[in-house]
Design goal:
- With 482 residues, the chain is of the alpha/beta class.
- The chain has three domains: 154 residues, Alpha-D-Glucose-1,6-Bisphosphate, Chain A, domain 3 (3-Layer(aba) Sandwich), CATH 3.40.120; 203 residues, 3-Layer(aba) Sandwich (Alpha-D-Glucose-1,6-Bisphosphate, Chain A, domain 3); 95 residues, TATA-Binding Protein (2-Layer Sandwich), CATH 3.30.310.50.
- The strands form four sheets. It has a six-stranded mixed β-sheet with strand order 1-5-4-2-3-6, with helices on both faces.
- A hairpin with an 8-residue loop joins β4 and β5.
Length: 482
């Protein structure tokens, strides 16, 4: 019986030893290797070279070595990193070296028991659905295929390489690090036990700026949390910021392609606010222009800013690869998703990068000569105050979540909490938009048995109330179904 291997918003993920096994890795690696070989035939400008990286999760190195072996058996040359590296480094190396593609063994911000298989295409971006569909089709072909078994013919080389100096040098050239080092402040860096550890500290050391690291050590359990840079996972960062009277707290997720932040007051700065700050900085200080891309769960604030500056706004389904697709074909200034992923035209590639965006955020704060909370207040005064939050509900199965979202779509409530529903949008999930511009979104996760409920409104209390009502709506639906 063939395993059920499906790619979600960014790769294939599964529970280690249950779904994510060496056998299944060989199956996926074989299908991917064949797709890479077809890409080489179709594009003579690409090199027969694939970069393979991995994060700090259990057996990450061994899964990467298994993937490298399958690739080699198919005649692909492989550069395999000697240690865990940030996903953006793999993306960077793929594009800079005109490689056919890359693989990162990572489950990003998923729980510790998960691992994953991220595919990077030759442009350094996460593989689009059309691309991963081809790989799924190869997996589904007849049983007489030899998935990663011993093969005859010339094998490709496997070269073991150190973490990329080219990527680090790119960061050094992009930012005025000497100016940042002169800050007479303290910055707390939270690597969340992930692959981002050490990079920000090394780049910012050597001046009056003091950089303190927390959760930098390797821990395959991530302290028992999801390594996602948002609350409540960033509570230790908030405490350290307050304890040290720091200017800001900066965080990266498990594979360092997402960014999180904490203000000097120990308040979480959501991705909506980070995206708004970076947009403000790029337009007001850098004098740049271009389109603005937001995913379906992004903020009203950013939309208002784009309209104010006369920048074309694009709204796409959730998943950074949808942003990257536009960045590759249009003049895009910046794009961001709710799940802490941001990309801009300042970057070498159309992909998210937690380390890059942490530096960009620090540079933005410095340029306005304001504390993070003061900068956010300035944005609120100019464009309106909006607050956001989300809750993740563990549910019996992905099917339960999908069914509920469809039910809300076909029979939406007329009002919630006394506020009338003005509009229904279904680009990705079901989004209820209210008369006062606030909204409530229901979306089933594509990688876990989770129902995500998102809300945005003009006060924190309103958002909390909306999330509670959204949760009750799902729970009552579940009781009726039982």
């Amino acid at each position: 019986m063939k395993p059920k291997i499906k790619f979600g918003t960014d790769g294939w993920r599964g529970i280690i030893a249950k779904d994510f096994t060496f056998k299944n890795i060989r199956i996926v690696a074989q299908a991917t290797a064949e797709q890479f070989l077809e890409d080489l035939k179709n594009n003579k400008n690409l090199k027969n070279l694939a970069f393979i990286g991995y994060d700090r999760r259990f057996l990450g190195k061994e899964f990467a070595e298994c993937t490298a072996k399958v690739f080699s058996e198919n005649g692909l040359n492989v550069s395999l990193y000697l240690k865990d590296v940030p996903t953006p480094m793999v993306s960077f190396d793929v594009k800079k070296n005109s490689a056919v593609g890359g693989i990162v063994i990572t489950a990003s911000h998923n729980p510790p028991e998960y691992s994953g298989f991220k595919i990077k295409t030759s442009d350094g971006c996460s593989a689009e659905k059309e691309y991963t569909n081809k790989i799924e089709e190869r997996i589904g072909e007849p049983e007489n295929r030899r998935y990663g078994e011993e093969r005859t013919g010339e094998e490709g080389r496997i070269n073991l390489i150190e973490p990329s100096k080219d990527y680090v040098n790119f960061l050094k050239k992009t930012f005025d690090l000497e100016s940042l080092k002169k800050l007479n402040d303290i910055v707390i860096v939270d690597s969340m036990n992930g692959t981002g550890n050490g990079y920000l500290e090394d780049l910012l050391s050597g001046g009056s700026l003091k950089v303190k690291t927390i959760r930098g050590e390797i821990d395959v359990t991530f302290g028992g949390i999801n390594p996602e840079p948002m609350m409540p996972q960033l509570e230790p960062l908030a405490k350290e910021v307050l304890k040290n009277n720091a200017l800001i707290g900066l965080a990266t997720d498990g594979d360092a392609d997402r960014v999180g932040a904490m203000s000097e007051k120990g308040d979480y700065i959501s991705t909506h606010k980070i995206l708004a700050i970076l947009l403000y900085y790029l337009v007001e200080k850098k004098k740049l222009s271009g389109g603005v891309v937001v995913t379906f769960s992004q903020s009203v604030l950013v939309k208002k800013m784009a309209k104010h500056y006369g920048l074309k706004l694009y709204e796409v389904p959730i998943g950074f690869k949808n942003i990257a697709e536009l960045m590759l074909s249009n003049d895009i200034l910046i794009g961001g998703e709710e799940a802490n992923g941001i990309g801009s035209k300042l970057h070498y590639m159309a992909d998210r990068d937690g380390i890059f965006n942490a530096l960009l955020l620090l540079e933005a704060v410095k340029s306005f000569n304001l504390k993070p909370s003061q900068l956010i207040e300035k944005l609120h005064k100019e464009f309106g105050a909006f607050y956001y939050d989300r809750i993740d509900m563990h549910i019996p199965s992905t099917e339960v979540g999908i069914s509920f979202v469809e039910k809300i779509k076909s029979k939406p409530p007329e009002e919630i909490n006394g506020i009338k529903v003005k509009e229904i949008k279904t680009l990705d999930g079901t989004k209820l938009i209210f008369e006062d511009e606030s909204w409530l979104l229901f979306r089933a996760s594509g990688t876990e048995a989770l129902l995500r409920i998102y809300a945005e409104g003009k006060s924190k209390e309103f958002v909390s109330s909306m999330l509670l009502n959204g949760k009750k709506l799902f729970e009552s639906s579940l009781k009726i179904a039982c």
